[in-house]
Design goal:
Layout (H helix, E strand, L loop, with lengths): L2 E4 L19 H6 L4 E4 L16 H8 L1 H9 L6 E9 L4 E5 L3 H5 L9 H10 L3 E4 L12 E3 L6 E6 L4 H14 L3 E4 L10 E6 L6 H9 L4 E6 L2 E4 L17 E3 L1
């Protein structure tokens, strides 16, 4: 028996680019073959839908509303909704797993912190940071920032990236020797390939996900029409045809 979890998703409640309410993912993702999902809305330093002029507590409440909406909708089902964050620095973005709403409330100055400081705070709470789509090239990205000193894993498959960008990420994860992740980066319900992490046991909660991911128990997969195929078995997701066309900066 295997269980697949979406690791990278956005809701319209907290991500400006999101087009789906948290509650509307539950039945849909179950139908796509997923046992659960991690809601990772853009934080305030990213493409956030949360107004900047609100008190910190109100901003946090609005930020977690998409997750809480999905969590409420999943009550009474076997679908496991978990909380995460997509955190931005200088267009290098990180999926933070293992922290919670209280952690955000307790760190109102987090956006004033350096990459290293945020990493220490996340680790202090028992969380991890996975660099999302590290070789993504878009009009709003100036250059590719690689930060090996503050990553616990690398997202090697992102369904919103092209094959070459994903293959470059795959090679980077191998170079660093860190766990690899896959996710859909889903903003709207759609037909087509998605990414996820497959486990042989159910994930209990986000702390359990962190433990199993860091232990190497998760298998990055692409999910298409209910069928999951490990990234390791797909050559085009592993072997880049060419290098980055943007400048690469290593911190």
């Amino acid at each position: 028996m295997s269980y697949i979890y979406e690791t990278h998703s956005h809701t319209s409640q907290a991500s400006k680019c999101g087009r789906t309410l948290g509650r509307d993912y539950v039945e849909y993702m179950q139908g796509e073959g997923f046992a659960g999902m991690i809601i990772t809305d853009h934080f305030f330093n990213g493409n956030s839908a949360v107004p900047t002029d609100l008190p910190w507590k109100e901003r946090v409440e609005m930020y977690v509303s998409g997750y809480e909406d999905a969590k409420k909708a999943s009550a009474g089902t076997d679908f496991n909704v978990m909380f995460g964050i997509e955190y931005n620095f200088d267009c290098d973005e990180y999926l933070i797993y293992g922290v919670d709403k209280k952690w955000l409330l307790d760190n109102p100055n987090i956006m004033d912190r350096s990459r290293q400081d945020v990493y220490k705070l996340v680790h202090g709470a028992g969380g991890i940071m996975v660099q999302a789509h590290p070789f993504r090239e878009r009009y709003y990205i100036k250059n590719i920032n690689l930060t090996p000193s503050i990553v616990d894993g690398i997202e090697i498959f992102n369904a919103a990236n092209d094959d070459n960008m994903n293959a470059l990420a795959y090679c980077y994860a191998k170079e660093l020797g860190v766990p690899a992740s896959a996710g859909s980066d889903i903003h709207i319900r759609y037909d087509g390939p998605k990414g996820g992490m497959m486990f042989h046991e159910k994930i209990v909660d986000i702390k359990d996900y962190v433990r199993k991911f860091m232990a190497g128990e998760g298998i990055p997969v692409v999910v298409n029409r209910g069928k999951a195929t490990p990234i390791e078995k797909i050559g085009s997701y592993k072997i880049p045809e060419y290098g980055p066309t943007y400048d690469v900066i290593r911190y």
